[in-house]
Write a structure and sequence with these properties.
single chain; alpha+beta; Serine Threonine Protein Phosphatase 5, Tetratricopeptide repeat; Heat Shock Protein 90; 2 domains; five-stranded mixed beta sheet; three-stranded antiparallel beta sheet; 8 strands
């Protein structure tokens, strides 16, 4: 009988292992297709099925999860899984496993720009591999990752040394130790060292090697590098072909850095050809892709583990306190059970109070809904005020003139600022509050575009007084723009050169003030009236203030108007910096 049960258990285990092995092959396929987040998710599922497997099998699963998270730029989860793998390999006293973990940890610290720790873990990993020379494949992976460190630091000669050693030692079919990946990195180093033909040779060899061991991430990188190489040689047709191939390979539902960089290169290509409309479209797509990448990526390293532990402990303490409070409440109710009259009065008071609170709740909810609708209308008005077609067309026409004058670098700079300003205004118009730092950055971009439109006949200065933390101080977005526009348009109307716009944020009596001034001719009766009617109408509504709360005046020196100044108090909030 025991023999029957033993055989049945063996059959079930074999079937389960076969299913898990099939899932692992699917995970590897996702990695090759560039679906790194999906690969990491499915690898976790494989790991769960291997819960009762041998430790050496489980630890390899942790390591693969960590690698998938690194490639999808989710370094927080990568660090957690690599620490689990490191703990297991340390218990097994496996030096090769420990070295592999050190290499991944170095990648995480490199992303954090902690170069000292990254270099330390790289050296530890290579030292362990030198002590175990029979594992050349794993050593090659560590050297390739170390080469990434030198590339990030701009030391391409040392990076090439690591890549050459890795290429001699590997015939691997993984991701980092694949010949195609190594040759792509080597080609980039040769490009950076001014050897384009050598670089092209490496890139084309990498594409051939990729046919034997395909990875979408590597293929996109090679094609982007070839496109950028052709662009630097002014072979625009080949550059466009390679870059379009790279963009077309973007995996669905994946934030991809190669896609973002390829769009930036396409913008430069079209700008060099004088097609400013396409250049703007690709630059805007690159800005959006970059925002998605930065929003998706957070990194807290070891602090994340500690924070998670502290949060769990706090939740446990709160549950204990709630249980204790509930026990005391029951005891008090039992002790007061004979006081029926008081209890009846208490219940009646609760019912009345609940009725009043319910009435107030619905009253204020309705009032808030009306306010939200009103604010939405105001935001739409503000959008029309901020980005009118006249401003957009003037900006694009001026950028076009720079291109015709062969000022491509200046055109790229202004095109980038214009696309960033467009995206900032569209994003911030839907927010109630943004940081003062973001507001200052958006104002600076706006004034740079205005400088271009007005032939650089003015300079500007934006300051925030000492004691104001621009990262933690939050204000409603785009309150200041109408006043800055008026200062440029009306205040400096007759200035052909030497104009100056001063923007200042300062605190007075615990209030935050905005002030903009110019060195123009000042305001006459008509211009003062127009100045107030255009600039203060929407702002007064948003501030829920009367027009008198917004001060507009001339700057008088020796009885003569030397410019105009506008100032008003801005509502603000203080938010703590994220840990």
């Amino acid at each position: 009988m025991s023999c029957v049960f033993c055989c049945a258990g063996s059959i079930l285990y074999a079937q389960d292992f076969k299913e898990t092995d099939s899932l692992q092959r699917a995970v590897d396929s996702f990695s090759r297709m560039g679906l790194n987040r999906k690969a990491a998710f499915e690898q976790n599922y494989v790991d769960a099925r291997l819960m009762n497997a041998k430790p050496e099998i489980r630890v390899n699963s942790y390591y693969k999860v960590a690698q998938a998270y690194v490639r999808s730029r989710e370094y927080d989860d990568a660090f957690y899984n690599i620490m689990m793998a490191l703990e297991s390999w340390q218990k097994m006293e496996n030096p090769i496993g420990i070295a592999k973990c050190y290499s991944v940890m170095a990648q995480v610290y490199l992303y954090k720009k902690d170069y000292k720790k990254a270099a330390s873990y790289h050296r530890k990993a290579l030292s362990l591999f030198r002590d175990n020379p029979h594992k050349k494949g794993e050593a090659a992976t560590a050297k390739v990752i170390y080469a990434d460190f030198f590339i990030d630091r701009g030391n391409y000669t040392e990076a090439l040394k690591q890549l050459t050693d890795a290429l001699d030692e590997t015939r691997g079919n993984g991701f980092y130790n694949a010949p195609a990946y190594i040759k792509d990195k080597a080609g980039f180093c040769h490009t950076s060292l001014g050897r384009p033909r050598v670089a092209e040779k490496y890139y084309l060899e990498a594409l051939e090697d990729l046919k034997k061991n395909p990875y979408v991430d590597t293929e996109m990188s090679i094609q982007r590098h070839l496109g950028e190489l052709c662009l630097s040689l002014k072979d625009y047709g080949q550059a466009q072909s390679w870059l379009e191939k790279c963009i077309s390979l973007r995996p669905a539902d994946e934030d991809n850095e190669e896609y973002m960089l390829a769009n930036k290169s396409m913008a430069k290509l079209y700008l060099a050809q004088g097609n400013y409309e396409q250049a703007y479209n690709y630059e805007l797509e690159a800005v959006i892709a970059d925002r998605e990448l930065r929003d998706a990526v957070t990194l807290t390293s070891t602090d994340a583990v500690a924070t998670k532990y502290d949060a769990e402990q706090l939740m446990l303490q709160n549950k204990l306190l709630e249980t204790e409070a509930e026990t005391k409440k029951i005891a008090a109710e039992q002790a007061d059970s004979r006081k029926n009259a008081f209890l009846f009065f208490f219940i009646f008071a609760i019912i009345v109070l609940a009725t009043v609170l319910l009435f107030l709740y619905f009253y204020f909810r309705q009032k808030r809904a009306i306010t939200v609708n009103r604010n939405n209308e105001l935001k739409q008005k503000l959008l029309l005020t901020q980005m009118n077609p006249h401003f957009i067309f003037n900006s694009v026409d001026t950028i076009q003139s720079l291109i015709y004058e062969d000022k491509n670098d200046e055109a790229v700079d202004y095109l980038s600022k214009f696309s960033e300003l467009t995206l900032q205004i569209l994003e911030n118009s839907s927010l109630m509050y943004i940081s003062l730092k973001e507001e200052i950055n958006m104002t600076a971009n706006y004034l740079v575009i205005q400088q271009l439109l007005y032939n650089h006949n003015f300079d500007f200065e934006i300051t925030a007084d000492d004691g104001i933390d621009t990262e933690t101080t939050y204000i409603p977005p785009m309150l200041t723009q109408p006043f800055i526009e008026n200062a440029v348009k009306h205040g400096l109307a007759e200035k052909k050169e030497g104009g100056m716009i001063y923007v200042r944020f300062y605190k007075k009596q615990r209030k935050l003030y905005f002030e903009v001034s110019d060195n123009g001719k000042g305001l006459t009766g008509e211009t003062r009236k127009g100045h107030r009617s255009m600039a203060t109408k929407i702002t007064s509504e948003r501030l829920n203030a009367v027009p008198g709360d917004i001060e507009v005046a001339n700057i008088i020196e020796n009885g003569v108007a030397r410019g105009a100044v506008s100032r008003f108090a801005i509502p603000y909030k203080i938010k703590n910096k994220p840990a």
